[in-house]
Write a structure and sequence with these properties.
By secondary structure, this protein is an all-alpha fold. It has a domain of about 100 residues. The protein has 4 helices and no strands. Helix 2 packs antiparallel against helix 3. The chain is elongated. The model has no long low-confidence stretch (mean pLDDT about 85).
């Protein structure tokens, strides 16, 4: 309680000091805090995985839609080429054969591209790096 002169009474140090805790209690508190922190981190990771899965499904749905639209564009393009070939005097049966050959040729080119590209998907440089060197081929070894 303040004095009439305006002086305030000084509180004893023991009133404001933190309660004494033992090392075992500190370790238990640290363990609880770490458990809560781990729980929060795992919960955040689960939410991010859920969001990533939702985005992946959306992208797959968009890719399928793009594929269908491209198929329709290809059909329209082939139809327009076929009509043009018929207008210049080519018989309809021969026109269909030409268009089928054009489609098969494009498919063959894409197949060659896929085969060439797939060779690098086996991680050849990594496999070479992981293979043990043949005896006598190690540059650091002396014979």
């Amino acid at each position: 309680m303040p004095n009439e002169t305006g002086d305030t009474q000084v509180a004893a140090d023991s009133d404001h000091a933190a309660p004494e805790t033992g090392p075992l209690e500190d370790l238990n508190r640290l363990q609880r805090e770490l458990r809560h922190l781990l729980h929060d981190q795992l919960q955040l990771a689960a939410l991010e995985v859920r969001l990533a899965a939702h985005n992946l499904l959306s992208m797959v749905a968009a890719a399928v839609s793009i594929g269908v639209l491209l198929l329709l564009v290809w059909t329209g393009l082939i139809g327009a080429i076929g009509m043009s070939l018929i207008e210049v005097g080519l018989k309809p049966a021969l026109t269909l054969l030409v268009l089928a050959a054009l489609t098969a040729g494009l498919a063959a080119l894409l197949m060659v591209y896929i085969r060439r590209t797939s060779r690098t998907m086996g991680l050849p440089a990594t496999l070479r790096a992981l293979k043990p060197a043949a005896p006598g081929n190690n540059p650091g070894e002396e014979s």
